Amino acid sequence: MYQCILIVIFIGPMSQAATKLNLEKKASTNLITINHIYKESMKTKSMFYNSKFDKKKFKSKVEAYSKSLTTALKNVQSLESKNNTSTTDPIALQLALEIELIEPIQNLANSNLNEKSCHAARHLNKYNTENDTKDFNLVDSVIKQLCN
Amino acid sequence: MERFFSQIGVIRVNLKVMKYWLFLYLFCSGFAFAEIICVTGKIKNRNIIDQLSKAKSNSEITKAIYAQYHIGFISNEVEQAPDCHDCQIRSKNTSDHATAAKEILKHTLTGTANSTSQTPKLLFKPECLKASHIAINADSTSTQLSCPDGKKTLNRSFCNTEEILHYQNAVISNFYGCLKSMNLPTLSPKYLFKKYSHESGFKPYYSYSGGHGISQLVDEFIADLYEPERGLPFIKMVANSETPECSIARKILNTDLKSSGKNLNNRPTTKKACSFVEIGDGLERNILYGLIGAAKIAALELKPIFEQYDYLSKYQNDPHFEELNDLLILAAYGPGGRSGARAAIRVYSRKNNPQAFITTLNSGITSRGGREVTRYLRNYTNSNKDSKSKSNALASLLPNPLNTEFIGEQGVDACINAF
């Protein structure tokens, strides 16, 4: 009986504190992982937009980049929900924006690269990035390499 | 001598006749002048008034709107006004419809008219439209387009009359009804009122940094409506519709499609700014394209992403879903807003019901890279200081009980007529 009381008084709160500590540690690890995923995605973005494109490898390159963004967003959202926090929403939002920004390039990759599809890609990029010259130029540079 | 006096007599008689005519002229012109009361602007700057009266006789679109909504001789105000003495004076001086006006007014005053069943409803309560127009344009320093020359002018504050406001209300109501009859969901009336209030304060010739007219349309927006795989199917859908509600919208769209040419190289463009501003077909085109554009955003940009995340199956019937959809349409309506609105759905639809999603949007969201997704939306919510002060100014101009309803729980809904 005495032992049970001891367990309740000391070990109970101690285990609760340990669980809390564990959760906090896990949350912090998740946060580090989310930041890592974001940094890696930005590196991939830079590599993608700075690479040279030719008609042969264009489609596979775009598919790979698009897949990497989708996976990154999925992973961030899954870690976020484990943490039950919204502090990393701006990261998820940025990744979602990147997915939106490559849509004109994706459409182009799935087309015959003819005049019509080039025009449509240019238009969608302009419409997507109005007032945002930096993003516009990134996507435009890819379109220019494939549509002359 | 006798002849001389008789001649003086003739002159005297003529003077009497002249005095009579002079009196009659001043009396009538006095009434005609009293007719024009500027809600905002200066009476000497009659640019919009002159264009409206020109459109009333030249434009098939304006004529059709006047005929359907009985503008100039019967309106909500006439029906509701307790003292119709003023209405009678007004109707007598509305030259274009004088006879019909007298007839309808006579019936209205004797209570035999069945006008409500014949006149389509206006979307916005006229008192609210007037209050919004005055409150938003209180400083009256905004640039306006002078048409037909298309020059921007800051110094001339054009006179806007109640008739002009009533006309805009009728055009918006007509095109809204058209899209509704085709099941093309556009912005809800509440957010349409907010949009027009904030975009231009129902000032039809307002022009600001690339945006023109009542909906503040920019050329990218129009260009998107003429892209074959984006907005064009929506334009064609309305142009080819058979619903009687779209008869006026069809006139504008069929003319535009015809003049655009096969390759759409001559599509309407805001480079010819007056074609999106001038009463007769410009103001009307502006309103129509703004509404179709919003419908396109809902159906083409937002719906597929909502579906991708199974949001519609879960929440389409949620009481807050319509408002969420409205807010996202507005977020996408702004420059570059499309990608932001769609990205927001990707992120927040996973963990938020519509009410929580609305709270998130209203509190403002910015991406890690610094893109403020809700930048355009900020202007419409009362979390914005400027918006709040304008909303307060609008409320203070409303008569009771509208004022109490607007300040109270109803908010902007108090300004909307059941449609």
Explain this structure to me?
The complex is a heterodimer of chains A (148) and B (419). With 148 residues, chain A is an all-alpha fold. Chain A has helices at 2-50, 58-83, 89-101, 103-109, 115-128, 133-146. Helices cover 83% and strands 0% of the residues of chain A. In chain A, helix 2 runs antiparallel to helix 3 (89-101). Chain A is rod-shaped, with a radius of gyration of 23 Å. Chain A starts with a helix and ends with a helix. The model of chain A has no long low-confidence stretch (mean pLDDT 87). Chain B is built from 21 helices and 6 strands. Residues 74-117 of chain B have low confidence and may be disordered. By secondary structure, chain B is mostly helical. Chain B has helices at residues 2-35, 47-58, 60-69, 76-80, 85-93, 98-110, 115-118, 126-136, 162-181, 189-199, 219-225, 232-239, 247-260, 282-308, 311-315, 321-333, 337-348, 354-363, 375-378, 385-397, 402-407; strands spanning 38-40, 144-146, 151-153, 160-161, 207-208, 211-212. Chain B has a two-stranded antiparallel sheet. Chain A binds chain B through residues 38, 73, 77, 81, 89-94, 96-97, 99-101, 103, 116, 120, 123-124, 126-132, and chain B through 218, 220, 223-224, 227-230, 335-336, 338-340, 342-344, 346-348, 350-351, 365-369, 371, 373.
